[in-house]
Amino acid sequence: MDYVILKNYQKQIKQREILIDIDLTIPENEVVALLGRNASGKTMLLRAISGLIKPTAGEVLIKGKRLTDAHPFPESLGILLGSITFWPHCTALQCLKTLAAINNKIGEKEIKETLIRVGLDPEDNRPVRKFSMGMVQKLAIAQAIMEKPELILLDEPTNSLDTNSRQLFHQIIADEKERGATIVIASHIKEDLEECCTIFHEVENGRLIS
Question: Is the pTM for the entire model greater than 0.85?
Answer without folding.
Answer: yes
